[in-house]
Amino acid sequence: MKKNLLIAFGIFFSIGVSAQEDPVLMEIDGKPVTKSEFLQIYLKNNTSPKYDKAALDEYMTLFTKFKLKVAEAEALGYDTIPKLSKELEGYRKQLALPYLIDEAKNAELVKEAYERTINEVRASHILVRIDANAPPADTLVAFNKIMAMKKRIEKGEDFAAVAKGRNGSEDPSAVNNGGDLGYFNAFQMVYQFEDKAFNTAEGSVSEPFRTRFGYHIIKVTDKRSARGTIKAAHIMVAVPKTGTDVEFTAAEKKIGEIYAKLQTGAKFEDMVKEFSDDPSSNQKGGELPPFGTGSTTRMVPSFEDAAFGLKNNGDYSAPVRTDYGYHIIKKLEWNDVKSFGEMQKELTNKVNRDERSKKTQDYFVNRLKKEYQYQDKSKKGAKWFVQNLDTNYYFGKWNADKLTTDKPIFVLDGQKFGQQAFADYLEKNYRSVRKDENSVTVKTQLKNWEKEAILEYEETKLEGKFPEFKALITEYHDGILLYEIMSDKVWNKAMKDTVGLKGYFEQNRSKYMWGNRLDAVVYECSNQQIADQVSKMIQNDTINSKHVLDLINKDSELNLRVRTNKFDTEQTSFLKDQNLKVGVNKSYLFDGKVYVVKVNEKLDPKNKEFSEAKGATTSDYQNYLEKTWLEELNTKHSVKIFESVLYSVGK
After folding, report:
1. Looking at residue 182, which CATH number applies to its domain?
2. Are 224 and 119 in contact (CB under 8 A)?
3. Which of 297, 328, 408, 611 could staple 235 via S-S, CB 3.0–4.6 A?
């Protein structure tokens, strides 16, 4: 999570200033930081920015700390660590994609994505796994296996039976769902899968096709207009997937009783608070993230169908069973799919980040060829490869050691791209290449290399062409270094340095105290009559809480809840200010429930032991380490702030 926060700089934002208009705002060890860089980060971290002296000074303090940590990381060579260099290069590739596409073709894909947003397809699939870099022999085995299953289906066997049968689909979920993926639309599957599903007729089975997961065949079972997005709340009685019949029966009884209470006037939100087993929603009225068309949140089909089946906002369903237990679902709000105009920017961003953007690169490469005066020299340059490639190539055992020349294969922007670079590409990219005549293999690989080389060349020029891209790369670079050095100097150090951590605890022991506590058993009763029964029963010390729970909840799971713990009275709302004594206390009403508390012992305030305070101590120790580290950095690195430039921000 920390890493995601640190790299949250990566939101696209263009300041759009030239170098002449972009004065230096500060220097760290003589390295300039411009006004636009500061402003860009300031705006991303302040939704309601202020430009007065106090606000700018406050943020400048934070910004300086950030830049000092990055400067220290660079001084220690973090930017040369192979793992981090590789990570940054990966981000760079992703961020460069929107700049390496043909805009017209991209617009077509955006419109296609919208059509697939307002419509949904339901499909089942069979998967035969094959690694993306598998050798041809393994690829052929996988292809033959998927073809064999397709032929069985064409001869009349049931798709689901083939999918979950012996030697069937290698998608583990097929055992339970027969390959049925439910409904989906744009961006919810990898692009090749989505494309095949939307282009396969309803009721038909596709030809085998390949994704990074392996070979698939798809059966399209339905197509429909998208249902939009719904916001719903639920009451959940959880049952584990491995739950017994007894557990399911008890859960069904409990959800039925909750439903009956709703029908007689109980408030939905009260029932959620008292009885729902979903910890992510039971403190907010059962409210769930929106789900449906285009949403990243997906619910199991039975849950979705019940939710979308509700007519009016405020309506709630009868109990619904899913793999997770039982639910009562309340409709809060429904929204139809937005118009193309409303979604265009969002869809464009998704297309630019998605695999489908690669479709436009061929168009883009042709444009670059014209712009950079491309010259084809492959007739002579590729001849050596046609003559010297052999069957070892398809198994990764071929090399170009005998190549002694570096004749140009093509020229771009006055730069020669020669035989040695192509040889290197061939040696590294032999996987998934179909065995064929040398001339065919060389021609295919030459086309792939040429495209890759031209795009890589253009990528090297992006910082000069697009200031916003340069700023984005800087931010990702700084974010990666910051995360890594903070892990080493603060976060991980605090957890690994057990001697230092314990020493810090001992020096600050007085900070870590238990408040007034009760060693108690708390009986939360649904009404006063039950509270009276409980009070009477627990006067007998031979009767424990389990006996009480079994008897009181014999007719209803909603009658009684029991909690046993050492409770901090100041931190526990239903015990605070109750003046409880040792033994069975008189029942009392709190927040709609009647409480009976049996106090075993009153525990006075005392120091926590290290094991009891380890979490809080670790957090405090991390803050201490960061503070002392920053003091050291301030003496080690020089910082110069140009206040006239700082206070001109926003003007």
Report:
1. 3.10.50.40
2. yes
3. 328
Asked if the structure places residue 286 within a domain, the reply is: yes
Residues 89, 316: Cα–Cα separation, whole Å: 50
Give the C-alpha separation, 99 to 455, whole Å.
10
Write the DSSP symbol of residue 184: E
Residue 346 lies in a domain: no
Task: Compute CA distances 254 → 277, 319, 333, whole Å.
Answer: 12, 10, 27
Residues 272 and 298 in one domain: yes
**Residues whose CB falls within 8 Å of the CB of residue 544, separated by 6 or more in sequence, listed in order:** none
CA-CA distance, 495 to 615, in Å (whole number)? 10
327 and 379 inside one domain = no
**326: containing domain:** 229-335
Q: Is the pTM of this model over 0.85?
A: no
- Assess whether 305 and 237 both reside in one domain: yes
CA distance 330 to 314: 6
Residue 364 in tokens: 């883009």
Q: Which long-range contacts (CB under 8 A, 24 or more apart) does 112-117 make?
A: 113/186, 113/187, 113/347, 113/350, 113/351, 113/356, 114/186, 114/340, 114/343, 114/344, 114/347, 116/185, 116/186, 116/194, 116/198, 117/185, 117/186, 117/226, 117/293, 117/294, 117/337, 117/343, 117/347
How much of the chain exceeds pLDDT 90, in percent? 79
How far apart (Å, rounded) are the C-alpha atoms in residues 432 and 438? Answer: 15
- Contact in structure between 315 and 232 (CB atoms under 8 Å): no
Could you read off the pLDDT of 27-51 as tens digits, one per residue? Answer: 999 999 999 889 989 998 888 999 9
Mean pLDDT of the 123-127 span? 97
- pLDDT-based confidence at residue 555 (cuts at 50, 70, 90): confident
Contact residues for 510 (Cβ-Cβ < 8 A; gap 6+)? 607
- Within-domain flag for 624: no
Q: Given this model, what pLDDT does residue 11 score?
A: 28
Write out the DSSP string of 547-604: HHHHHHTTS-TTSEEEEEEEEETTT-TTTTT----SEEPPPEEETTEEEEEEEEEEE-
> Are residue 540 and residue 581 in the same domain, yes or no?
yes
- Phi then psi for residue 156, to 5 deg, are 120, -5
Please list the residues that pair with 237 across neighbouring strands: 326
C-alpha–C-alpha distance, residues 355 and 526, integer Å: 56
Angle at 557 between CA 556 and CA 563, to 5 degrees: 135
Q: How many residues appear in the chain?
A: 651
Distance from C-alpha of 524 to C-alpha of 565, rounded to nearest angstrom: 14
**Cβ–Cβ < 8 Å for 618, 494:** yes
Closest CA to 425 of 447, 392, 405: 447
Residue given tokens 């080690």 in the structure block: 636
Whether pLDDT at 235 is above 50: yes
Contact 409, 419 (CB under 8 A): yes
Mean of pLDDT over the chain: 91
Could you give the C-alpha distances from 594 to 236, 285, 339, 429, 532, in angstroms and in order? 23, 21, 52, 72, 10
Give yes or no for residue 18 having a pLDDT over 50. no
Q: Residue 521's beta-bridge partner residues?
A: 564, 598
Helix axes 245-263, 268-275, angle to 10 degrees: 150
Residue 163 lies in a domain: yes
Q: Which of 31-45, 220-234, 304-318 shows the lowest mean pLDDT across its residues?
A: 31-45
